[in-house]
Design a protein that fits this description.
Layout: H1 4-58, E1 68-71, E2 76-77, E3 101-108, E4 111-120, E5 123-130, H2 132-206, H3 209-236, E6 244-247, H4 248-258, H5 260-265, E7 269-273, E8 280-283, H6 285-301, E9 308-317, E10 320-327, H7 358-368, E11 372-377, E12 383-390
Keywords: Kinase, Membrane, Phosphoprotein, Transferase, Transmembrane, Transmembrane helix, Two-component regulatory system
EC number: 2.7.13.3
Catalytic activity: ATP + protein L-histidine = ADP + protein N-phospho-L-histidine
């Protein structure tokens, strides 16, 4: 059964595909209609020009075609009343020399006319072509194109909806299988992890000294692993975890303590630098704990024996809390400062180094909390990761 969040996402994807198909079909019809309209207009203008040229060539002695008027200095055709505004005396000046021809389109008395002025052997003639029927033809074409556009758009929406449903169906199946796998795997892991956590607690209570401290770290690790499993179950159900007030300083100290044994075995100094003040942010504790764990894991993996790792916390302004993980390890080229947060990105310095998934997941979690994370480094001179989150008022 799909969750409400998945249904909304899939519905949005269907409509997005449908809209894209409709837009493409609409644009194709519009382009085809524009080409047809342009060809009709060009043909009408060419036909009007040919008709006027032939009318002037035949002269007033021959009756002009319908919707055409011819004016010479002494005669006009056809006979009868002259349309208001014809002829236009000022146009004669446009053809001062024999053989000159001038053509334009002008509105006279609310009607559009194609006008040809020609100087034939010193005699200037004006011919007028009324475009009433051409305008009607263009209006009919525009109406037909609009109707075709509407029908094509409706057909595109219907067809696009069907195609979108078919295209999304494999995605629905994949999401269902993925959610089922995550839920089943997490459920199967929950029981053995609970038993392991309980046994670790019993051993920690019965032990003392150094063993008790190590077992306490084991208890904490199993608890964190159980939290990861719970988060996976929530993710499979598409439930959004609730935000809490989180003391980032406490999480940093716990993360450093959890990595203390590993750092000691690698002869790497690991320390927390902070003021004794609250560093409270609003977020998901388990997710932020994994962010700190991933940053420390990255630093330990790239810091040679004898190096050091410092976790620094501060308040750069009244609105933010800042955490930096600074190491003295191998560093990275400045060109990789953004690429290291990409999934399975490779380094640009030719050593074939891969950055894996850890830092990519760190950025996703930080962005989901409304924060930012940036990296700075130099080959052989260590790296610094700066995490900045919105500050929350402690209760």
């Amino acid at each position: 059964m799909r969750t409400d969040a998945e249904q909304r996402a899939l519905r949005k994807a269907r409509w997005a595909i449908t809209a894209q198909i409709a837009v493409v079909v609409s644009l194709l019809v519009g382009v085809a209609g524009g080409i047809a309209y342009g060809m009709l207009l060009s043909g009408q203008h060419a036909d009007a020009d040919r008709t006027l040229a032939r009318t002037i060539e035949l002269g007033p002695a021959s009756t002009p075609p319908g919707c055409v008027w011819l004016f010479t200095p002494v005669l006009r055709a056809p006979g009868g009343p002259v349309r208001a505004g014809m002829p236009i005396a000022g146009l004669n000046a446009t053809v001062p020399s024999p053989g000159d021809v001038h053509t334009e389109r002008r509105s006279i008395g609310g009607m559009t006319y194609t006008i040809r002025v020609e100087n034939r052997g010193g005699v200037v003639s004006q011919a007028y072509f009324e475009e009433v029927y051409q305008i009607q033809d263009r209006s009919s074409l525009v109406f037909g194109l609009v109707l075709a556009e509407v029908l094509a758009l409706l057909a595109a929406v219907l067809c696009g909806r069907v195609l979108a449903c078919r295209a999304i169906r494999p995605l629905e199946d994949a999401l269902r299988r993925q959610r089922t796998f995550v839920a089943d795997a997490s459920h199967e892991l929950r029981a053995p992890l609970t038993r392991l956590h309980t046994r670790a607690q019993l051993l920690a209570r019965r032990s003392s000294g150094r063993d008790a401290a190590d077992l306490e770290q084991l208890v904490r690790g199993t608890r964190e692993l159980g939290e990861v499993v719970e988060d996976l179950l929530m993710s499979a159900a598409c439930d959004r975890p609730s935000l809490e007030l989180v003391e980032l300083g406490v999480l940093a100290e716990e993360a450093v303590a959890a990595e203390a044994v590993r750092a000691g075995e690698g002869r790497v100094r690991l320390a927390v630098t902070r003021e004794r003040r609250p560093y409270v942010v609003q977020g998901v504790p388990t997710a932020l704990r994994r962010v700190l764990s991933a940053l420390l894991d990255n630093a330990l993996g790239h810091t040679p024996p004898g190096g050091s790792i410092e976790v620094w916390l501060g308040v750069p302004d009244e609105r933010h809390v800042e955490l930096r993980v600074r190491d003295t390890g191998v560093g990275f080229p400045a060109a990789d400062a953004e690429r290291i947060f990409e999934r399975f990105a490779r380094g640009s310095d030719g050593d074939g180094r891969r950055f894996g998934l850890g830092l990519a997941l760190v950025r996703e979690v930080v962005n989901g909390h409304g924060g930012t994370i940036a990296a700075a480094g130099h080959p052989g001179d260590g790296a610094t990761f700066t995490l900045r989150l919105l500050r929350a008022e402690p209760t």
